[in-house]
Write a structure and sequence with these properties.
The complex is a heterodimer of chains A (135) and B (607).
Chain A lengths: L13 E3 L14 E3 H14 L15 H4 L6 H18 L3 E11 L4 E10 L5 E9 L3
Antiparallel strand pairs in A: 1-2, 3-4, 4-5
Chain B lengths: L12 H12 L14 H26 L8 H10 L11 E9 L7 E4 L4 E6 L2 E7 L3 E4 L9 E10 L1 E8 L9 E3 L5 E10 L2 E5 L16 E6 L5 E5 L13 E8 L10 E5 L7 E3 L14 H14 L6 H11 L5 E6 L8 E7 L8 H12 L8 E5 L2 E13 L8 H18 L10 H11 L3 E17 L2 E2 L3 E3 L19 E3 L2 E2 L6 E6 L4 E8 L2 E12 L5 E4 L8 E7 L12 E5 L5 E6 L3 H6 L7
Helix pairs in contact in B: 1-2, 3-4, 4-5, 7-8
Classes of the chains: A alpha+beta (135), B alpha+beta (607).
């Protein structure tokens, strides 16, 4: 008789939820795994400015100052360049497929979509975020 | 299995963070510690930053807890306080001025020169104010005619006289302290009165000596965190306590410290008395000093604690004097038994402001500072340093191909080095002259210098006035070169002097010796020595002692006696300070290929 075996794919990447959500049953802190963990990491990297992390001034992406530049193709290109460099430097778990940036003048914002593939996996993942300056 | 227990050994942020990551990543709950963007990595940042911050603060804190490692002055002062040591405040330069006070009316019996009388003084580009710190009363004899004068000595101190008023309040009763509003206060000048009654300043060491009771009218002085001083009054157990509403008047000098030392020129201003003038020339002001530095406090406080305010060992004398008398550059203390005078302690002091202390300063040290601390049967005696001049004749051989400048420049640089040598290697008590150090310094002057050879002579300068020398017996304190009896007797032996004149004589005279321990006096006539007295003194080659016979009637001036020592190195014992006589020292620079010149220069010691 053939034995059916089931395999649960074990998460490789496991991080806690930066929004500090609570697990409904165990009351533990919420966990993000794999693509979710990486999405959180990418967002965190993009949103970090230089000199924000103690003793590691080089970590971050110069997004904040670019959001104050004129909304033109040059700035979009600079944004793409900055995000690509940051991910290349600090997120070794992914291979970038595409960075799509769309100007949203009605919102004074950019739509950012990062498409990537987690190393050693086939499927692509996407992070979508609206970049908007606060002041 | 790898040992991933957290390490508690690192102070550096990165190391702390890595230690924590290494530990936590072995735990199964989470996995992303090593990825920069992860929330866990961010958490590690916060933990490592906090750990780093705390360990750094702990490190600073522990350093500041010990006298050796503390760097903040208020902490050094605080630790010194635990050793019962109060750092020396700035001290005002003082001098004594003689005033000539005329009698104005026939029935005038006395006049008062009040405390706070101004004596303005000029020194170089700076002007200083000196004040009397107490009243001086001048009495006139009834027989003294109007217009005739009486001389009075007044002690004046440099600074600005400040009076500050405090009132004891209800809030201040449990620990009554009052902070003086100025830095650079000379705390020895403090005069404090409470409701018109003068209070006495008590130092921690005095506390056990003077019997302080609950009614003693006393106050203490302490340095504050911001380098001012505060007055602390009694608590009703030690010293009388203040009551609310008490009025405290503090008068003190804010001084310029050492900057006002050496001032000689004064102008007097006694209010309402333009007829009072200064007579004679006051001795230059001395004793001014800056507040004790952190370095000095660290050096002195443990010694002071060890001495327990008593002068018993040689070190005790040094510690007490450095604490209580600011104008000291170098000090040497030795027991009288070392020089055949048991029962005495000799304290040789080289002040910062010159070569010797004034007679007044010596008296202050002997009678006011040391007499309260030393053993009763021992008599301290303050000596001037014995300056032993070293006259050098140096031949420097150089390589012309490597010389970037001229030989004259090379010569000047060697002479400049002599000046530097006087302050870096010698110039203080017990600092010996070592010719190898000098050679090394010469070699380092320029790469073109191939070698150097230095001949050393020792010179003592004697002062002649009123046909007498200031001393007829002295010692070079070093063995004098004497290879054989009669050595170079025909050339004057190893002792020589400058040419000086004697009362009523047309010729110059000088001293030399006969190589057998006797000093000869000669007249220098037609470039020849004509011996006048073959028994003009004795020389002890072994001990370096010289004794000149009195009665050769020198005219006023300086007589320099020079000898050749046995050793190239010169020892400085007891009260001796060595000093290279740069003006009389010679340097000859010779190119290395000038063999004829080199041969002609006698490089031996006996030249």
């Amino acid at each position: 008789m053939a034995v059916q075996q089931t395999f649960e794919r074990k998460s490789i990447y496991k991080d806690f939820d930066l929004s500090f959500s609570r697990h409904p049953l165990t009351d533990d802190i919420g966990v993000k795994s794999d693509a979710n963990a990486i999405n959180q990491s990418l967002l965190s990297l993009v949103a970090t400015n230089f000199y924000e992390r103690p003793f590691q001034p080089q970590i971050g992406c110069n997004i904040r100052s670019l959001l104050f530049q004129p909304a033109d193709p040059i700035t979009v290109n600079d944004l793409r360049q900055a995000i690509s460099e940051t991910i290349g430097n600090y997120e070794p778990r992914v291979s970038l497929i595409d960075i799509f940036i769309e100007d949203r003048p009605d919102l004074n914002a950019y739509n950012l979509r990062i498409t990537y593939r987690i190393n050693n996996r086939n499927e692509a993942s996407t992070l979508e975020v609206v970049l908007k300056r606060l002041r | 299995m790898a040992d991933n227990r957290p390490v508690v050994a690192n102070l550096d942020f990165q190391d702390i963070k890595q230690d924590m990551i290494d530990y936590f990543k072995s735990r199964p709950e989470f996995a992303d510690y090593e990825f920069t963007g992860s929330g866990l990595n961010l958490l590690m940042d916060i933990l490592a930053y906090n750990t780093h911050y705390n360990s750094l603060a702990a490190n600073f804190l522990v350093n500041e807890m010990f006298l050796d490692s503390a760097v903040m002055r208020n902490n050094v002062v605080s630790i010194a306080k635990a050793l019962n040591y109060q750092p020396r405040s700035a001290s005002a330069s003082t001098t004594t001025i003689t005033l000539r006070v005329p009698k104005r009316t026939s029935d005038e019996q006395f006049t008062v020169i009040p405390a706070g009388s101004l004596f303005s003084a000029v020194s170089g580009n700076s002007t200083f104010n000196f004040y009397t710190t107490r009243d001086y009363t001048v009495q006139f004899a009834t027989t003294l005619a109007v217009g005739q004068t009486v001389d009075v000595d007044v002690v004046v101190s440099e600074g600005t006289l400040i009076t500050q008023r405090f009132v004891q309040t209800a809030e201040n009763t449990s620990f009554p302290t009052f902070e003086l509003a100025n830095t650079n206060v000379d705390t020895t000048s403090l005069v404090v009165s409470v409701n018109g009654t003068r209070y006495n300043q008590i130092t921690p060491e005095d506390e056990g000596i003077v019997q302080t009771t609950r009614t003693s009218q006393i106050f203490f002085v302490e340095e504050t965190r911001n380098r001012n001083h505060r007055l602390i009054f009694g608590n009703g157990v030690i010293g009388e306590a203040l009551t609310v509403g008490d009025e405290i008047i503090a008068t003190y000098l804010v001084t310029n410290g050492a900057a006002a030392n050496g001032v000689r020129s004064f102008t007097v201003t006694v209010p309402g008395r333009s007829d009072i003038s200064i007579t004679g020339s006051p001795s230059p002001s001395s004793g001014g000093g800056d507040p004790e530095t952190i370095r000095e406090i660290k050096d002195t406080a443990p010694h002071w604690y060890q001495a327990q305010y008593r002068a018993v060992t040689e070190n005790d004398y040094g510690a007490i004097l450095r604490k209580k008398f600011a104008d000291i550059q170098s000090i040497s203390v030795y027991g009288g038994e070392k020089v055949g005078q048991p029962g005495k302690v000799f304290v040789a002091v080289k002040p910062i402001s010159g070569d010797t202390l004034s007679a007044g300063a010596k008296k202050t040290i002997e009678n006011e500072i040391l007499s309260t601390a030393n053993v009763v049967t021992i008599r301290p005696e303050v000596l001037d340093p014995f300056i032993l001049n070293i006259v050098l004749k140096t031949v420097v051989v150089y390589d012309n191909t490597k010389l970037a400048t001229t030989p004259a420049v090379l010569e000047a640089r060697v002479l400049t080095m002599y000046d530097r040598f006087n302050t870096t290697y010698i110039g203080e008590f017990l600092e010996n002259f070592r010719v190898s150090q000098l050679s090394a310094e010469i070699d380092n002057i320029d790469t073109s210098i191939v070698s150097s050879n230095t001949r050393v002579s020792l010179r003592v300068d004697l002062n002649a006035s009123n046909s007498r020398l200031n001393t007829y017996e002295f010692s070079f304190r070093n063995t004098i070169y004497h290879p054989e009896d009669g050595f170079k007797a025909d050339q004057g032996g190893v002792l020589s002097s400058n040419l000086f004149t004697r009362q009523g004589r047309p010729y110059s005279s000088g001293f030399d010796e006969d190589g057998r321990g006797t000093i000869r006096l000669y007249d220098f006539i037609d470039n020849e020595k004509v011996y006048i007295n073959n028994q003009a003194g004795t020389i002890n080659y072994e001990t370096g002692e010289i004794e000149l016979t009195q009665g050769f009637d020198p005219e006023d001036g300086t007589i320099s006696i020079t000898v050749i020592p046995e050793s190239f190195d010169v020892a400085a014992e007891n009260d001796t300070i060595l000093r290279i006589a740069t003006n009389d020292s010679r340097v000859e620079v010779v190119e290395k290929n000038e063999t004829a010149v080199l041969r002609a220069l006698n490089l031996s010691r006996s030249a």
